[in-house]
Write a structure and sequence with these properties.
The protein has about 130 residues and is mainly α. It folds into two domains: about 45 residues; about 45 residues, no CATH class. It is built from six helices and two strands; from the N terminus they run αααααββα. Strands 1-2 form a two-stranded antiparallel sheet. The radius of gyration is 19 Å and the shape is elongated. The model has no long low-confidence stretch (mean pLDDT about 85).
Length: about 130
Amino acid sequence: MAIYISVPEDVKAKIKSMKSHTAVKIWDAVWEANPKTNLTQVQIYYWGLKLNQNIWKLKDNQLESAIKILKKACEDGVKVKIIDTPVKDRISSLAFMFTGILDEYGECVCELAMDLTWKTNALKYE
């Protein structure tokens, strides 16, 4: 039988104050403050996502949200190029390039790759 332990408001405030940290670091801070807690890492991770959702979920549509995030990054001075991709068989996609990394490392890098395990795709097409 599962027992749900609610996350107290002070822990939620701690999570929110550490929004720039990884879930592991947030969990470590929660655990350090109260090593006898009945809270779980999963709960802390969930609230980290939930409380900071306004940063990464700007629209309900994932594609529109990603484009909005990239455009905001451009406004903030990040060198990003959004590459037009055709819609084929009603499937939309997004391609982009961080051009700043080329400015900095372009002469000495022969290959760059991005790991697609960010779990940003609720439809499981990644």
